[in-house]
Automatic annotation (TrEMBL), chain A:
Pfam families: SpoIIIAC. It comes from Paenibacillus catalpae. The chain crosses the membrane at residues 6-21, 26-45, 65-85, 106-127. This is Stage III sporulation protein AD. Keywords: Membrane, Transmembrane, Transmembrane helix. The keyword Cell division does not apply. The keyword Membrane applies. It comes from the Bacteria.
UniProtKB/TrEMBL annotation, chain B:
The chain crosses the membrane at residues 12-31, 37-55. The keyword Transmembrane helix applies. This is Stage III sporulation protein AF. Keywords: Membrane, Transmembrane, Transmembrane helix. Residues 182-214 are annotated as: Disordered. InterPro entries: Spore_III_AF. The keyword Transmembrane helix applies. It comes from Paenibacillus catalpae.
Length: 131, 241
C-alpha cells in the first residue's frame, strides 16, 4: 500500500507548507523540495521493475542492446530533468527551470546523432545505386 | 525466408512496444516530442534493417561505434575539468613566479639607482652593482629585503692599458653568482681588515678597492638604502690579468 503512504506524505507536507509559508517562506520551499526528493527516490526503486520488463522484452525479441540503452537513457534524462526543473519552478525561478528543460532536450537530441548519421549514410549510399 | 520475415516482424513489433512503454513512462509532455523523434528513428532503423544490411553489412557495429564515440567525447570533456586543488596549485605557482619576477625587477632598479647615486656622489667609475635580495617572513607574506650589495669599480687605467683584450673573460667571471654569496658571508671579516691589501681573499681578477673610496661608497649606500655596512662589498677590477 505504498500509494497511501505517498499520498499521506503529500497531504501532510502540503498542510505543513501552508502553515509555515506565512512565517518562513524559505522553510516552506525546503519542505517542498525535500518532500519531492523523498517521493522521487521512493518511486525510482519501483521504476526498476518496469525497466526489468523492458529489458526482458528486448532480450527475448532480439533487438540490439544499443536500442534499449538509448531508450533507457532518454527516460533517465527525462525524469531527472523533470524533477530538477519542477523543484526550481516551485522556488519561483521559471527561467532557470526552462533552461534545465532545454538542457534535457539537447541531451536527448545528442542521443539521436549516431542514429541519424547511420540513416543518412544509408540514404546517400542508396542514391547512386538508384540512378 | 519465412523465418527471416518473422524475425524481422518480431523486431519491429518489439521496438514499437518499447516505444509505447517509453511514452507511458515519460514524465512530462515537454520531453515527449524529443524522445518521440529518437524512438521514431529507432523504429525507422529497425524497419530499414534489411536494406541497411544489404548496403552496409553490419550497421549495428557502426551504430555502436558512433554511440561509444559520443560517450567518450563526453567523458573526455569531463576529465578536462580542473579541480579546485589544481587551480590553487597553479595559482601558487603563478604567485611564486610573479614574486620572483618582481624581485628581479626590484634588483635591477636598485642596481641602476645605486650605480647612479654612487657615481654622482663619489665620482668613482662604477662598472656594476649587484644586489642580492633575501626573503623574510613578515606575518603571512614573504617580503624581500636587501641581503648583499656588491659594488664593482672599473679598473684603474693608469697602471697599464692591457686590460682591454681579456675584458670579456672577466665579464664571465662577474656572472658567476657564487662570488656574491661568498661575499655575503665573508663581508664582515673583510670589512674589519680592509686596511691590508687582501688581494687573495677577493678571488681571481679582483682586487680590494681603495679603502677610502670603498668606505665612502659603503656609507652612501648604508644611508641611502638602509643596508647594514657589513653586507656591502666593494671591489675593483684587477687590470693585470
Amino acid at each position: 500500500m505504498e500509494i497511501i503512504q505517498i499520498v499521506g506524505l503529500g497531504l501532510i507536507a502540503t498542510i505543513l507548507i501552508i502553515v509555515v509559508r506565512e512565517q518562513k517562506p524559505l522553510f516552506a520551499f525546503l519542505l517542498t523540495a525535500f518532500t519531492g526528493l523523498f517521493i522521487f527516490i521512493f518511486l525510482i526503486g519501483k521504476i526498476d521493475s518496469v525497466i526489468k520488463v523492458l529489458e526482458d522484452l528486448a532480450n527475448r525479441s532480439g533487438i540490439p542492446s544499443i536500442y534499449l540503452k538509448t531508450i533507457l537513457k532518454i527516460i533517465g534524462i527525462a525524469y531527472i530533468v523533470e524533477f530538477g526543473a519542477q523543484i526550481v519552478r516551485d522556488a519561483g525561478q521559471e527561467s532557470i527551470a526552462s533552461r534545465i528543460e532545454f538542457a534535457g532536450k539537447v541531451l536527448i537530441l545528442v542521443m539521436a546523432v549516431p542514429i541519424i548519421s547511420v540513416i543518412v549514410e544509408t540514404v546517400i549510399g542508396l542514391l547512386p545505386a538508384g540512378s | 525466408m519465412i523465418a527471416w520475415l518473422s524475425d524481422w516482424l518480431r523486431d519491429i513489433i518489439a521496438v514499437i512496444m518499447l516505444a509505447a512503454f517509453v511514452e507511458l513512462l515519460l514524465p512530462n509532455k515537454a520531453m515527449l516530442r524529443y524522445s518521440r523523434l529518437v524512438i521514431g528513428l529507432l523504429i525507422l532503423l529497425t524497419i530499414m534493417s534489411p536494406i541497411l544490411r544489404l548496403l552496409q553489412g553490419d550497421f549495428n557495429a557502426k551504430l555502436k561505434d558512433g554511440i561509444t564515440h559520443w560517450d567518450q567525447l563526453e567523458a573526455q570533456r569531463e576529465v578536462k575539468m580542473p579541480t579546485l586543488s589544481d587551480i590553487q596549485k597553479k595559482a601558487d605557482e603563478l604567485n611564486k613566479q610573479q614574486d620572483s619576477d618582481a624581485a628581479a625587477l626590484m634588483e635591477q632598479t636598485l642596481e641602476s639607482a645605486m650605480k647612479d647615486a654612487v657615481f654622482k656622489q663619489t665620482e668613482q667609475p662604477v662598472e656594476a652593482v649587484e644586489v642580492t635580495l633575501g626573503w623574510e617572513k613578515q606575518g603571512q607574506k614573504m617580503t624581500p629585503y636587501v641581503n648583499a650589495v656588491l659594488v664593482t669599480l672599473t679598473a684603474v687605467k693608469k697602471e697599464s692599458d692591457a686590460a682591454q683584450a681579456p675584458n670579456e673573460d672577466d665579464v664571465k667571471e662577474v656572472t658567476a653568482i657564487q662570488v656574491d654569496i661568498n661575499a655575503k658571508t665573508e663581508a664582515g671579516g673583510t670589512d674589519s681588515q680592509q686596511t691590508d691589501s687582501g688581494k687573495e681573499g677577493q678571488g681571481e681578477g679582483w682586487i680590494q678597492a681603495d679603502p677610502s673610496a670603498s668606505k665612502e661608497i659603503r656609507n652612501l649606500l648604508a644611508e641611502g638604502w638602509g643596508i647594514s655596512p657589513g653586507n656591502i662589498q666593494v671591489r675593483q677590477r684587477d687590470n693585470r690579468n
